[in-house]
Amino acid sequence: MSKTPLWLKILAQGSAGLVLAFLCLPILAVIPASFNKASFIALPPLAYSSRWYEAFIADAEWRNALLASLHVAVIATLVAVVFGTAAAMGLHRADGRWRSLLTGLFLAPMIVPVIVTAVAVYRSALDVGLSGTPVGLGLAHALLALPFVVINVGIALRGVEENWLRAAAGLGAGPWTIFRTVTLPNITPGIVAGAIFSFITSFDEVVVAVFLAGYANKTLPVKIWESIRLEFTPVVAVAATLMIILAVVLFALAQFLTKSAGRRTA
Amino acid sequence: MNRGLPLRFAAAAKSYGEVQALKPTDLEVRDGEFLTLLGPSGSGKTTLLNLAAGYLEPSGGRIFIGERDVTDLPARRRNIGMVFQNYALFPHMTVAGNVAYGLTVRRRPRDEIARRVAAALAMVRLEEYGSRRIQELSGGQQQRVALARAIVIEPDVLLMDEPLGALDKQLRRQVQLELRRLHEEHRRTTIYVTHDQEEALVLSDRVAVMRDGRIEQLGSASDLYDKPVNAFVAGFIGESNLLPAKVTSLEGGEANVAIGAFAQNATVPAADGLNPGDDALLLIRPEHVRIDREGLAAEITEVVYLGELTAFHLRLAGGATLWGRQITNQALQRGMPVKVSWERAAARIVPKD
Amino acid sequence: MKRRHIETLLLLAPAVIFLGLAFVAPLARLFSLAFTDEAGMFSTFSTLIDSEVYRRVMVNTFLVAFAVALITVLLAWPVAYILTRLKGFWFAFALYGVLFPFWISVLVRTFSWMILLERNGPLNRFLINIGITDKPLSLLFNDTGVMIGMVHVLLPYAILPLYGAMLRIDQRLLLASDGLGAGLFDTFRRIYFPLCLPGLVGGATFVFLLSLGFFITPALLGGSNAITLSMLIASFINDRLAWSLAAAGSLILLVIVLALLAVTARFLPFGKGVYAR
Fold first, then answer.
1. How far does C198 lie from chain B, in Å, by closest CA?
2. Nearest to C78 among A16, A84, A244 (CB)
């Protein structure tokens, strides 16, 4: 087909390369910073050591923050996946006006600015005594994760043909059997993707957590947030590096699962 | 009045790595001629058209429009009018905006553009539709907008890539006649790509039948039908019975052949490249098969009612089979024993592939 | 009621009740605080609007969001374009380059920029070394830092809708334009650009909306020198326990976001076709 002139090709590829570098490289800056020997953050470090990793492990506050994050993320993921999957199936069956209305409701936590959600949820959590508890924060995070589950399962459901369900019913299967043997196997990739999104959403979340976590229940991002503002030592870079590693693992997992799901259906 | 230039391919070829989409091809399209490239998909017809348009670069050979060597010119410098399959109309512009486009980018004055767009729309009978959006038009109307857009720039050559492919059969007939009317009025050099043999016969001055990246035969519709050069062309244009035969002798432009299946001899016009002793195929068109009082014994194995005509399938005593066609006649019935003959003068031989 | 309807209702109920209790009710409760100040029903809003300081915060929030939206679409353009052109390994490489940052916590990314933009940080040293400046520039704790960080975080949101729009463009339209005699610039201006426009507007609006409510990045990179509306809301609660002002600020922010959303909904990427069976 018609050729793109060389100068345009070079210009496009060159500038795209620069923008991609701008997108990806700065993220990695925390990794060398975490191996600094000095007690202040410097890039590149003058001398390398793993002393801040040892400091991270030795410090009960950091350890507890990591555990609190995992705890909260598990609660949030479970709630979001169960409610979100059911909701997506309900939406899929609902008709017309109800469907668009409810879709708007389910996606609303994605649209309302997080600071507004955070302040509102904080106020109500104070009222009912859920502030500062893992359950309170887990539920709040489930709220933010819910749209991802609804969207992913919704997309997966569109791949389940109505005729398969009719065929199963015609062969004598009841609604629960149809769900278990026909619908569920086909939407599992969507549910898993939604679960991974939910987990990472909760694990990374700062704004709601800063308000809701309370003193005894700081998650890793909250601890990082406070440390940045108070001490700014390389141990923050260690925590940030750990978060990058976790994100990369989950990202790879999600890619792998969607790829292998794609192969199975292809 | 001829409003076009001749277009010439000189050993034009296109290959993608090992695959030859178009073998070196010579072809001259005369000025004012309507030439159709006919062939199955993958035969190289669209490749040839895209080489003419400048959307593909040839891997060998040259292309001339008039006296000008356009091989190295991009499409925008060739002054061609292209009608795409599915039209490629600009969805964000009105009908008039689409038609005006080629003039707008040529920086013609506003009033001239308005005048020529109106004239072009009138020519395709869409005067009232200038301000419509493309999405509001039917398939047939979109096709006409695409045509108006291509001819409003007064192209030296008009190129059409299966322009009627997206239309239903009824509409296709109608647009074919419309295209022929427009061509007869304006006599613009035109290359037309299709895989529909009927369309090719209706529209064209000449047809190039293509297969596997080369032109098998170039000629008028009647040339192709009456004197196909090989079994492929015979099979692609119209319907045919092809019977194995052997050339026994040549005599002043005539060939004597032995038809194995009938245990008979026949005399037919000689064909290029066929010498005594060669295996050949005898071509008998179904309309030349006759059920008669005299002839070979046969049995009717199938009768297909086509309205005005009835097609029938015959098995001869020797086991050979033939399709025939005649004006509908109640007398034909399956299983009926009949005598068969064919119009000797209309039979042809072609080389065995 | 038919059995099927009851089933549908049972499927929807948990999420609806959950959102009702944990989202809609808290929002309603918060916004009610905005109207229950002792000084009068609308006193919180007049406090926010009459104050020179608060007005500046709101204007600053808008300006930063506008600049960020503008810069992101400019930077998104070449990346979206080459994504439509690349194939195989390089396509995957570029696509992962866009998607990878999505997975990294905004907090981590912002922290990275704090390290890079420091007064004696690598970027300033680099700029001094190549002679662009002889004194370190102040890139942190002002609008410059905020914009760099926000552009970085929000860029993928601009790239993906634009890429989608470019992908939907029928390549034959460009060939048709070429064949009709249009040069590269005409084809771009009259065909390619107008057809990219929905994606461009969608991406820019999305980025703008997200920018308005951004909290972490401006809080860390801007500090007290570049306060945005969301930082103001947080400080009402944390520093002054002024719930009614925080509520009023939240309501203003939400109303602006929803109003913009209503105007530009048709360009936005989410929900589009997600539930169209």
1. 11
2. A16
**A171 at B interface, C-beta within 8 A:** no
Q: How far apart are CA C219 and CA C212, in angstroms?
A: 13
The residue type of B54 is G
User: Chain C contacts of A150, Cβ < 8 Å?
Assistant: 15
My answer on whether C161 and C216 are in the same domain is: yes
**Domain layout of chain A by residue ranges:** 66-265
Q: Provide the domain count of chain C.
A: 2
Whose CA is closest to B48, among B217, B210, B176?
B210
Residue range A101-159, pLDDT digits in tens? 898 899 899 889 999 999 999 999 988 888 888 899 999 999 999 999 999 999 889 88
Q: For C180, name the nearest residue in chain B, comparing CA atoms only.
A: B102
B53/C176 Cβ within 8 A: no
**From C16, C105, C254, residue closest to A112, measured CB to CB:** C254
Say whether residue B76 is in contact with chain C using an 8 A CB cutoff: yes
Once rounded to an integer, what is the mean pLDDT over residues B16-22? 90
Domains defined for chain B, CATH in brackets: 7-231 (3.40.50.300), 239-351 (2.40.50.140)
Interface size between A and B, measured as CB pairs under 8 A: 8
C191 contacts B90? CB cut-off 8 A: yes
Asked if A155 contacts A190 with a C-beta cutoff of 8 angstroms, the reply is yes
Are residues B307 and B326 in contact, defined by beta-carbon separation less than 8 angstroms?
no
pLDDT, residue A235, reads 87
Indicate if C235 and C132 belong to the same structural domain.
Answer: yes
Note whether B90 and B98 are within 8 A (CB): yes
CB distance B149–C180 less than 8 Å?
yes
On whether both C8 and C84 belong to a single domain, the answer is no
**What is the separation, in whole angstroms, between the first and last Cα of chain C?**
24
Per-residue model confidence as pLDDT tens for chain A (266 residues): 456 788 888 999 999 999 999 999 988 888 888 888 777 777 777 778 888 888 888 888 889 999 999 999 999 999 999 999 999 999 988 887 888 889 889 989 988 999 999 999 999 998 888 888 889 999 999 999 999 999 999 988 988 888 888 888 888 888 888 888 888 888 988 899 899 999 999 999 999 999 988 777 899 999 999 988 887 778 888 999 999 999 889 888 887 877 766 555 43
Q: How far is A6 from chain B (nearest CA, A)?
A: 15
B209-231 pLDDT per residue, tens: 999 999 999 999 888 988 898 88
Residues C89 and C221 in one domain: yes
Nearest residue to B302 (alpha-carbon basis) of B326, B329, B324: B324
Residue B3, both tokens:
């409003």
What pLDDT, on a 0 to 100 scale, did the predictor assign at position B245? 85
Angle between helices C106-117 and A220-230 (to 10 degrees): 20
Q: Are residues C5 and C50 in the same domain?
A: no
Mean pLDDT within B232-260: 85
Model pTM? 0.82
Q: Does C58 touch chain A (CB under 8 A)?
A: no
Q: Do A1 and B74 touch (CB under 8 A)?
A: no
Tell if the CB–CB gap between B84 and C182 is shorter than 8 Å: no
Q: Counting one residue from A and one from C, how many pairs have CB atoms under 8 Å apart?
A: 246
The whole-chain average pLDDT of chain C stands at: 86
Expressed as residue numbers, the domain containing C142 is 40-275
For domain A66-265, the CATH class is: mainly alpha
**What would the pLDDT profile of C88-139 be if each residue is shown by its tens digit?**
899 999 998 998 888 899 999 999 998 888 887 888 888 888 888 888 888 8
ipTM confidence score: 0.87
Using CB atoms and an 8 Å cut-off, which of residues 1-30 of chain A contact chain B? Answer: 1-3
Instruction: For residues C126 and C2, state if they share a domain.
Output: no
- DSSP assignment of B247-315 equals EEEEETTEEEEEEGGGTEEEEEE--TT--TT-EEEEEE-GGGEEEESSSEEEEEEEEEE-SSEEEEEEE
Are the C-beta atoms of residues A144 and A208 closer than 8 Å to each other? Answer: yes
* pLDDT tier, B2 (very low <50, low <70, confident <90, very high otherwise): low
Q: How far is B168 from chain A (nearest CA, A)?
A: 29
Q: Looking at the structure, do residues C13 and C124 belong to the same domain, yes or no?
A: no
Chain C interface includes B158 (CB < 8 A): no
Q: Report the alpha-carbon distance of residue C228 to residue C256 in Å, rounded.
A: 14
